Amino acid sequence: MRANEAPAGIPPDNRRSGDAIMPFKFLFNWGRTNKVKREIIVNAESLETRVAIMENGKLEEFQVEHPAEERIVGSVFKGKIQNIEHDLQAAFVDIGMSKNAFLHYWDMIPEEADDFDEDAPSFDRRRRRGGSKKRMSSPEIEKRFPPGSDIVAQVVKGPIGTKGPRVTAALSLSGRYLVMMPDSKLKGVSRKIGDQKERQRLKAILDRLPVPDRVGIIVRTAAEGARKRSFARDLRGLLNRLQELERDVREKPAPCCLYQEPDLVERVVRDWLTEDVDNIVVDDRDAFEKIREVAGRMSRRSRSRIHFYEGEVPIFDHYGVERQIENAFRRHVTLKSGACLVFDETEAMIAIDVNSGRHKGSGSQEDAILRINTDAVEEVARQLRLRNIGGLVVVDLIDMRSRKHQNAILKAMKTALRRDRARTNVLPISELGLMEMTRQRQEESLWSTRHVDCPYCNGRGAVRSTLAMSVEIQRRIAAAIRKQKRLDRSDELQVIVHPTVLERLRRKDEEFLIAMESKLGARLSFKSNPAKHMEYFSIHDAKTGEALYTSL
């Protein structure tokens, strides 16, 4: 067996002393308490690459990428202004894709940010509304960026549905420990690093780095505990990338791509391989070598934590990921307490209903509701990450009378959302017991990318009942008979329906059809066709075969 290879068929937590993956880990960790075991499982295939982050065997993060489909979030383009829309306060930019990119006025000129989040795929430096810096007027924008002029922009939101991508002129380039922002003076440490002593250490390192003028630098969360020389190496790589970008801006004609964001395999190392990760296990040899190469450039010590999986069982099955993915993407998600969440994804919002289900708890009813809602918001935060749900989210909690309990649930939700890389905003619980929140939407949700509308029900999730079909059929038969009599044609009709509907007509509605024949003076015959849609029916002239009415 090669070094750093995971032996086949051995459960991840029950490996022999001779196995390659951290064989004596327990001996070194015996003194630690409540140690969270973090593993990154990479399943790389020709059509799809999947990455799962497991904490003590529980799926906490999940990302999917299709190599055949171009991922443009974070990529930098040189585009041409196609038109200026003053009503929308935006410009539309041709970046070489099928749909023009949307560029808002306040994203056209890089400005300093009031707040920052280095975990975003492309660092968002949009100035908040009501900021101190005066915005340019519409005539000034059009004078500075006339149609046909070139502009360099970075994609912050991919195309979703019928909408094109959204871009910003405030560029950012992400390294392992640093985020570089051209045309900016901003320098600081990620707000997600809470230890004040560590923040002071990182600020001191940042002050000594040879950063050029008009280049902003943010220290990323991954830099916590990193050595000084790692920052200098990361900065050199970013400056080289910036020089290449500036050269391409001068030499390449618009529209064109100036910088392509790395694929998911490389981003695993850049964004997720931190000191608290125990193992990265990969099932593809090329992906394994690539991850080791990228990790080696950043930290030689990290290479020892990267392992190749050769088992016969698919890697996601071996580590229990597949089963958790299937459970996570169901409409009904059961909680440990017996309660459940019900997810409904619509065009306008995501509605999540909290249901007490089979929960049987001790203590008062208020305390039981508090426990259910607490479990629910923690699972909601996890589900939002796993499903990559964005936009407006409304959680219908179980009603709580106590304002203290409501505040506790709000705090629990905000705490659970801290680990989310996407920006979120949670509002206090309303009088109706609804928790409203927004989550940054950069790409389509995983549900949308993995599913298409059902061709049978056209995405409605339901078909008309046999009662509704019977009512509609009788209404159309009566209209057809009256029309035939008015035109002095045959009063013999044949109706073709789905077998399920015919069963309803025979068993429950036969007397109504006989009464219709008698009242309107017609003769009816019915025929079933199992190849037809359940909502299909057609009415024909029994003698000529002419179709008088077809429902679909």
Structure characteristics:
globular, disordered N terminus, single chain, alpha+beta, 6-stranded antiparallel beta sheet, 14 helices, 26 strands, 552 residues
Overall pLDDT confidence: 85
N-to-C span: 62 Å
How many strand units? Answer: 26
Give the low-confidence spans: 1-5, 7-33, 120-133
Trace the largest sheet across and list its strands.
1-16-15-2-3-4
Give the radius of gyration.
30 Å
Structural class: alpha+beta
The proportion of strand residues reads 15-25%
Largest sheet: 6 strands, mixed
**What is the approximate shape?**
globular
What is the helical fraction, as a range of percent? Answer: 25-40%
* Count of helical regions: 14
How would you describe this structure to a colleague?
With 552 residues, this protein is of the alpha+beta class. 30% of the residues lie in helices and 24% in strands. It has helices spanning 25-29, 138-144, 196-208, 228-251, 264-272, 285-298, 315-318, 321-328, 365-387, 403-416, 446-450, 466-486, 499-507, 510-520, and strands at residues 5-6, 38-44, 49-55, 58-65, 76-85, 90-94, 101-104, 150-157, 166-168, 173-174, 178-182, 187-189, 215-219, 256-259, 277-282, 306-309, 332-334, 340-345, 350-355, 391-396, 424-426, 434-439, 492-497, 523-528, 537-541, 547-550. The chain has a six-stranded mixed β-sheet, with helices on both faces. Strands 5, 6, 7, 8, 9 and 14 form a six-stranded antiparallel β-sheet that branches. Helix 5 runs parallel beside helix 6 (285-298), helix 9 (365-387) runs parallel beside helix 10 (403-416) and helix 12 crosses helix 13. The longest helix has 24 residues, at 228-251.
